Hints:
By secondary structure, the protein is mainly beta. It has strands spanning 3-7, 10-13, 18-25, 32-39, 46-51, 58-60, 68-73, 78-83, 92-100, 117-118, 122-127.
Amino acid sequence: QVQLVESGGGLVQAGGSLRLSCAASGRTFSDYTMGWFRQAPGKEREFVAVISWAGLRTYYGDSVKGRFAISRVNAKNTVYLQMNNLRPEDTAVYSCAASAGRYQVMDLMTDSNKYNYWGQGTQVTVSS
């Protein structure tokens, strides 16, 4: 079992920044590919970003490319999502997820079914 706890959400004005954190416990963190997803009210869950086990490979959803950055510190069992130039349409509950396996194909990791463990999520609200 892997437990994931997100933090760092909140209310921010359009154009502002937030950094989300996801702390993992329970298994060897570096054995997992880590992703971020979001879900806005009345919408389907949307892929945001994914990072490989060593942090050398990343992949982003089109709507956040160039504005968000995913990173991880394995020594701290934590994955981050730096969100810059936020827009009202970024408003959603953001959840991190863990997928067992180090050598995942990044562009296939947009599928939420490939993840084994999920956090509860943190709310991000962007005002216009």
